[in-house]
Amino acid sequence: MTSHAWHGPLSRRVLTCALLISVALGLMGCSKQAPPPAEQPMPSAVAVTVNPGGPVPIKTPTAEFEVLPSGYIRAYLTQGGKRLTLDEPESGSADPYLVVNAMEVREVALDFENAKVSDARGKLGARGKRVETVGRSLQAPGVEQTVAVEVYDDFPNLALVTVTYKNTGPKEVRLDRVVAQS
Fold first, then answer.
1. How confident is the model at residue 68 (pLDDT cuts 50, 70, 90)?
2. Whole-angstrom Cα distance, residue 179 to residue 98?
3. Is the pTM of this model over 0.90?
C-alpha cells in the first residue's frame, strides 16, 4: 500500500495557489457593486388639460394648441404671456371633415370626457404628450372619427395631427374624400 504525503514543496505550492484562488474569488464576490439606479427621465414640459366639454389645450413653453369640439386644432405661439396667431377657424366651418356617399360630413361630436393622454411615442424625441379623442358622426351614423395630437419637447412649436375614420356601422360606406385641416 502506498501512502501519499501532502507535504513538501509541490504540495505547499498547490495548497497556496488554491488558497489564493479561493480568497480572490471571495474578494471578487464581496467587491461587486450594485448597478447604478436607472436614471429617471425628466418629465415632459408639454402640459395637457382635458376639459369634458372641450377644448383640450396642449401647452409648451413657446406654443399652445387647442383641440376644439369640432376636431379643429387651433395653434398659437406664446410670447411675453400673449397668444399670437394667424390661425382662426372660418365661421360655420368644421375641420376635419369627410365626404361619405357624396355627402359632406362635418358634424362630429368628440368625446372629451374619455380623451386619452399618454406619453408621445414617435421618433421626434424622448419626451412629449399625445392626446387622443374619439367622436361619432352626427350626420353619418356608424362613422367614428379619432383625432390624435402629438407634441414633443424637442419641437415645441409643432403639433402632429392624425385623423382616422372607421366604419362601425352595419352598412358599407363609400369614402369619397377626407380633409384633415383646410
1. confident
2. 6
3. no
